[in-house]
Amino acid sequence: MATMKKLLLLPILLYAHPAWSARPFVTDDARLTNAESCQLESWTRIYPNSTEFWALPACNPTGNLEVTLGAGLSMASDTKDTSDYVIQAKTLFKALETNGWGIGFAIGKVYHPAVTPSANQLGNTYAYIPFSASFNDDKIVMHLNAGVLHDHASNKDNMTWGVGGEFKASPRFTGVLEVYGDHQSNPFTQAGIRMSVIPDLFQVDATLGRQLNGVNDNQWVSFGLRITPDKLF
User: Fold this and answer.
1) Does any domain span residue 11?
2) Is residue 147 within 8 Å of residue 129, measured between CB atoms?
């Protein structure tokens, strides 16, 4: 995946690792993973000319500080394989409640070692505010992100944003829809479904996505999983 696309996805996404939302969203929500526990999100994105693999473990040791440390591998048919690394911290000012709203703050860095290494030793820094609102007893939950990403290679700032919704069809199945991007590029959108295999512990998901008004290379199908044990320490 092109560098700019990575910069758009990760700052808003990662993430983004709440206990009920998260995968397959790029847009984050105002929740954290379970207190005194960790979670694992892993997924693959398949593009016409490349495939990505991601693993993002996150822990919440204090109850209101979620720390994520993960990595991704991109394998393209015509270029050398590349890897990326992410570190992020997230906290909440107000946790999302049923039929209520929540808001938080996240900050992190995305490292691209193979992309102009000397200019990116400190990575690309980002920060954003996730806002969420619950309706009809959590049958509809909406998420809004607003943030900024500083690209150290170009020394430029991009304003990032995301809007997403989850729509519960049954206790086990939830539909997801979102659009996200920055102030300089055409936005991205994706839609899909999430299935709870073991409630509150193990879920799988799948999405179809593309860049609006973009080239065919900027479309994908993704498959992911998420494991959220109740307590580990």
Assistant:
1) yes
2) yes
The total number of structural domains in the chain stands at 1
Q: Are 206 and 222 in contact (CB under 8 A)?
A: yes
What whole-number distance in Å separates Cα of residue 58 and Cα of residue 60? 7
**In this structure, is residue 79 part of a structural domain?**
yes
Domain that holds residue 27: 3-227
| Number of residues that make up the chain | 233
Query: Per the domain annotation, does 233 fall within a domain?
Result: no
- As a whole number of angstroms, the distance between CA 41 and CA 5 comes to 20
Tokens of 44: 């693959």
DSSP bridge pairs for 59: 38, 67
Maximum CA pair distance of the chain? 51
pTM: 0.86
Separation between Cα atoms, residue 166 and residue 6, nearest integer Å: 23
How does pLDDT run across 51-85, given as a tens digit for each residue?
A: 999 999 999 999 999 999 999 999 988 788 888 89
Q: Indicate the SS3 state at residue 11.
A: helix
**pLDDT digit string (tens) for 158-213?**
999 999 999 999 999 999 999 999 988 899 999 999 999 999 999 999 999 999 98
Residue 83 is part of a domain; what is its CATH number?
Answer: 2.40.160.40
Terminal Cα-to-Cα distance of the chain (whole angstroms): 37
The reply to whether 232 falls in a domain is no
